[in-house]
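Need a sequence for this fold. Nothing fancy.
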């Protein structure tokens, strides 16, 4: 019989491997179609703008835990590529409101479709688990997320 401590260590190792694999995926370009390749940050930014209204660079920085400078560079890159429109805010001539351009809307729809496919794969994969197993997993992941949030605070 495997000890509880050894099982917890195995779970920790599995989480580390998953994180490392996800980090590798996050470094890969995201091909929406034969002519559109985006970085994962660009994809998430387009996705965020597609779900949100009245967004500015500060909102992007806050949402993704980026510096304002990094968010501004990312937004400007997406503006140059034609995915985002940047207009002077109605509230302040020092602030820009961001929205998806028609090309950005197309990309957003493709991203939504791909996200839906991933969700469907996840839901199908988890059908075999009991409600209790899912609930326990959710509790564990909540605690892991809290731990990661605490670690993130050190970098602010």
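Here you go.
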């Amino acid at each position: 019989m495997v000890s509880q401590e050894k099982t917890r260590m195995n779970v920790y190792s599995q989480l580390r491997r998953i994180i490392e694999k996800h980090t590798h995926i996050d470094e890969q370009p995201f091909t929406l179609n034969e002519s559109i390749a985006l970085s994962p940050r660009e994809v998430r930014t387009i996705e965020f703008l597609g779900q949100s209204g009245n967004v500015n660079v500060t909102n992007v920085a806050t949402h993704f835990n980026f510096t304002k400078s990094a968010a501004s560079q990312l937004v400007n890159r997406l503006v140059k590529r034609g995915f985002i429109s940047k207009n002077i805010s109605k509230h302040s001539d020092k602030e820009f409101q961001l929205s998806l351009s028609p090309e950005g809307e197309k990309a957003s729809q493709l991203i939504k479709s791909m996200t839906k496919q991933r969700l469907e794969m996840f839901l199908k994969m988890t059908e075999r688990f009991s409600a209790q197993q899912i609930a326990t997993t959710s509790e564990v992941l909540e605690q892991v997320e809290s731990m990661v949030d605490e670690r993130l605070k050190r970098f602010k």
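For context: Residues 29-153 form a domain with the Arc Repressor Mutant, subunit A fold (CATH 1.10.10.10).
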